[in-house]
């Protein structure tokens, strides 16, 4: 291995170690937050999100489904979006039978909810998160997997691909420059990279990425002056809502946060 490659490997190892330590410290603090505080902050954050013009204008929205503890609850938000007549997509994680070289064996897509009753009937996974299972995928739209032929470059007219207008994203830690640190699996970053590729194949430069909004407890937001270490494949948010605080926004989207 030459010196350049060695330096790059060292940098990647240092980046992973820094992220791992930041996750550990944040999770330790989250374990002590009272349920009453999570409920209060969830209600406040939902009201802030509902007031965003990007949310109000969105017809198709992706929303993470929250864990039982340690993050803002999104159950009421999902039900509100369905009540407003928005098409709602939630995460679905699955194993790839033959992943390409360098691609993960387990990836995330967004699948549609059929109704409020459908959402309430979902079974919880090992994290305690209500999620569709493989047998319940029949009749659901899939944001990316319905367009595998376009991801492979077989079609370039974009017909049929609608994507989503806004993505509401979770995380472990966030900073005020709108970087996010996820759980370390890379699900959201890889999803966004595939989404961006599909847009380029389908629409060229006219393709538009979703508006990315992070939801956080105030305890997940780093103090002013502290930043999350990021890599070239990480994505920054377009907006961040942290509990009862005013919304943090930026003007330009693109890589720079973590999933």
Characterise this structure:
The protein is α/β, with parallel strands linked by helices and 259 residues long. The chain has a 7-stranded mixed sheet, with helices on both faces. The two termini are 29 Å apart. It has helices at residues 3-30, 35-51, 53-57, 75-83, 116-120, 148-151, 187-203; strands spanning 60-63, 87-95, 106-112, 166-169, 173-174, 180-181, 211-216, 235-236, 239-242, 248-249, 254-255.
Give the helix/strand layout:
Blueprint: H1 3-30, H2 35-51, H3 53-57, E1 60-63, H4 75-83, E2 87-95, E3 106-112, H5 116-120, H6 148-151, E4 166-169, E5 173-174, E6 180-181, H7 187-203, E7 211-216, E8 235-236, E9 239-242, E10 248-249, E11 254-255
Parallel strand pairs: 1-2, 1-4, 4-7, 7-9
Antiparallel strand pairs: 2-3, 5-6, 8-11, 9-10
The percentage of residues in β strands lies in: 15-25%
Structural class: alpha/beta
* Uncertain parts: 1-6, 149-159, 252-259
Q: Which bin fits the share of residues in helices?
A: 25-40%
- Please work out how many helical segments DSSP would assign: 7
| Order of the strands making up the biggest sheet | 3-2-1-4-7-9-10
**Could you tell me the number of beta strands?**
11
Based on Cα principal axes, name the global outline: globular
What is the N-to-C succession of helices and strands? HHHEHEEHHEEEHEEEEE
The biggest sheet, with number of strands, parallel, antiparallel or mixed sense and barrel status, is: 7 strands, mixed
Radius of gyration: 18 Å
Ends apart, CA distance between termini: 29 Å
Mean pLDDT: 87
């Amino acid at each position: 291995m030459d010196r350049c490659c060695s330096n790059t490997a060292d940098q990647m190892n240092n980046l992973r170690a820094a992220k791992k330590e930041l996750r550990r410290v944040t999770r330790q603090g989250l374990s002590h937050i009272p349920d009453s505080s999570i409920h209060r902050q969830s209600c406040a954050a939902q009201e802030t999100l509902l007031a965003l013009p990007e949310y109000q204008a969105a017809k198709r929205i992706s929303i993470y489904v929250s864990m039982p503890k340690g993050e803002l609850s999104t159950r009421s938000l999902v039900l509100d979006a369905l009540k407003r007549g928005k098409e709602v997509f939630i995460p679905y994680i699955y194993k790839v039978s033959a992943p390409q070289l360098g691609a993960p064996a387990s990836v995330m897509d967004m699948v549609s909810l059929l109704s409020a009753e459908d959402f309430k009937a979902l079974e919880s996974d090992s994290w305690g998160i209500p999620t569709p299972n493989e047998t319940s995928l029949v009749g659901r739209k899939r944001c990316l997997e319905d367009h595998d032929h376009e991801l492979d470059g077989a079609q370039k007219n974009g017909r049929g691909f609608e994507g989503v207008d806004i993505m509401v994203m979770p995380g472990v830690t966030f900073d005020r420059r709108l970087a996010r640190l996820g759980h370390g699996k890379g699900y959201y970053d890889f999803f966004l990279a595939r989404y961006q590729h599909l847009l380029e194949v389908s629409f060229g430069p006219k393709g538009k990425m979703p508006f990315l909004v992070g939801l956080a407890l105030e305890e997940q937001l780093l103090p002013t002056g502290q930043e999350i270490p990021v890599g070239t494949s990480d994505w920054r948010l377009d907006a961040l809502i942290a509990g009862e605080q005013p919304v943090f926004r930026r003007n330009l989207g693109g890589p720079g946060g973590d999933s």
